[in-house]
Amino acid sequence: MLGELLNPYQLQIASFVLINIILAISVYVTLSSGQLSLGSAGFMGIGAYTSALVTIHFEFPIIVGVLVGAVVAGILGILIGIPALRLSGVYLAIATLGLGEVIRVIFVNWESLTNGAVGISNIPQIGREIVFTTRDLGFNATSLGLQNNQFASLSVFLILFVLNIFIIWFIVRQKNSRVGRAFSAIQLDEKAAESMGINVTYYKVLSFAQGAVLAGLAGALFAHVMGYISPSDFAYHRAVEILIFTVFGGSEVIVGSVFGAAFLTLMPEVLRFISEYRYIIYGVLLVILMAVRPQGIIDANILKRLKRSKGGDVHGS
Amino acid sequence: MLLEQLVNGITLGSIYAIVALGFTLVFGVLGIINMAHGEIFMVGAYVGVMTTGVLGWPLWLGFIAAILVTAFLGYLLESLTLRPLRGKKGVSHLAPLISTIGVSIFLENMTHHLFGAGNKPFRTPFAQLSIEIGSVTIYVVQIIIFVISILLMMGLSIWLSKTKAGKALRATAENLETASILGVDTKRTIIMTVVIASAMGGIAGVLVGMAFNSVSPQMGLAIGLKGLAIIILGGMGNVKGAMVGGLILGLAETFLVAYGDSGYRDAIAFIMIIIILLLKPQGIFGSKAAQEGR
Question: How far, in Å, CA of B147 to CA of B156, rounded?
Fold first, then answer.
């Protein structure tokens, strides 16, 4: 029965939604301290390539590869963040835009390592590895009434889902902690925050590096879900797309990023004819949003109202 | 060989300088990085290609068409995306940046949609004409690019320092409110600034089309990044810095291509950004105060 309900294609799209949510959160974390990073695609690429290369060449387990990818992206984030963050936010946006482009140029040109513009294929895939491992342990997916590929997609989805829950939990906890309050103080007024004794540079680098780690993590996961990556997966367009997830959904609250990523990933799947005009629509969307609703679709007010109406209405919504 | 590379570098550098001037004018007056400038430049290049290549207009008419189209785009950019955000309370300083990113991605994909992804060749009647001075070969195109760039830069400098409108622009750049109190029509000045900056981008677009014989929808991003690198190098909002920075980047890239690995040519701009941010964040010609940003 379960076997009839699960469609690997839909599960894969659901997995992409979850990866995009991680990416959107990476932008959200950086924006929560008032910084705009246009390098998320670059960090994502670093995570993806690092993880793909160490799992292929050194035969690391995927989980180690993913972690290495995230850490390398984070270190790079710190290295870029420190010089750029001494100055106003505009410099960071430019430096990260440049970084993203340079990373792409390196991916294209360092052919001996990255296989150039063709990209890397045969990356170990999470789903397949799980099927093989469980088979070796004597477990057979058909005992659940599932095909192997259904089982693979389902396990990928579940792993990503748990990871998403964990990341959201972490960010929500952080938001209500000393660190989170420092972030929002810096976002509101950097000078005031500094005069209150907040180490502005430290917290800015921290939030920027967190964003880089998350983007690297998402990139590594992307590589091991797709099994194939190329430099064009991590171009400027991807960075803008990720930025739109957060800005459209709402950059004040984490629910906004989740909503934005989910909505904008599913939209082109549901409405096929839109897919072709996606970036044109994104561009118009950004301009309109900034003029009409700079905080995005979902903000703190809407959440409050939703909670109140849920309290009064038994059926909820 | 060396002299030829020097000529190539100066030609490239003078185009970069014009692009950077567009960024620096807008930043100086509005305190905004106009992320759409590269794409306006790209539109200018396409207008040049379409009018001269497809419609067969003479080059000077192509220039005028490019100037008109990009100036109009600049006007739209200002009135549709920048003006609604100005003076609005509670708008983050990132809002105009994000808004112009929206314009840039719109223009790029619109062009992609209308004209296709590939490179379009840019034909000029004198593409292969060259002059030999000793052992050095100089193409006529290079001379034209250089002369137009110099004229443009000189014109802008004189306009900024001598005319009433130019003075109004500088006053607005200095302090918008004070200028407004002193009777400068700041709204008009801002529109004029964005329009002029965009038209300069359009001219630079046609020049680049001539220099490289091709245009593509992605050229805006690459050149935009270089323009941004140049204004960081020269100091944000600094006109002289943009000119010198452009020449430095043009020469650096040309010599890398000639004596090093051409694949990494686009990386120089970024390396320059990082070095400047580490060593002299206010830029070569920037004043200490500019470091604070806005």
Answer: 14
Nearest to B190 by CA among B78, B292, B109, B112: B78
List phi, psi (to 5°) of B125: -65, -20
User: How do the domains of chain B map onto residue ranges?
Assistant: 2-292
Angle, alpha carbons B83-B84-B86 (nearest 5°): 60
Contact by Cβ (8 Å): B192, B156:
no
Burial bucket for residue A24 (CB in 10 Å: 0-12, 13-18, 19+): buried
Number of H helices, E strands in chain A: 16, 0
The predicted model scores a pTM of 0.86
Cα separation, B257 vs B255, in Å, equals 5
B190-242 pLDDT per residue, tens? 899 999 999 999 999 988 888 777 788 888 888 888 888 888 888 877 888 88
A94 to chain B, any CB pair closer than 8 A? The answer is yes
Residues 159-218 of A with CB under 8 A from B: none
What is the ipTM for the molecules in this complex? Answer: 0.83
Domain positions in chain A: 2-234
* Segment B126-183, tens digit of pLDDT: 666 777 777 777 788 888 888 888 888 888 888 888 888 888 888 888 888 888 888 8
> Which among B173, B169, B149 has a CA at the least distance from the CA of B159?
B169
Token couple for B173 = 């750049």
| pLDDT at residue A316 is higher than 50 | no
d(CA B159, CA B244): 19
Taking alpha carbons only, the member of A278, A86, A95 closest to residue A201 is A86
d(CA B44, CA A250): 35
CA angle A36, B221, A204 (to 5 degrees): 15
C-alpha A58/C-alpha B108 separation (Å) is 40
Measured between CA atoms, the residue of chain B closest to residue A111 is B263
CA distance linking residue A181 with residue A58, whole number of Å = 42
Interchain contact A93–B (C-beta under 8 A): yes
The pair of structure tokens assigned to A266 is 């599913």
- H or E element in which residue B139 lies: strand B136-139
| 3-class DSSP assignment, residue B105 | helix
What architecture does CATH give domain B2-292?
Orthogonal Bundle (1.10)
Quote the minimal CA–CA distance from A290 to chain B in Å: 6
Contact state of A83 with B278 under an 8 Å Cβ cutoff: yes
Query: Which of B98, B226, B292 to substitute to test the interface with A, most A CBs within 10 Å?
Result: B98
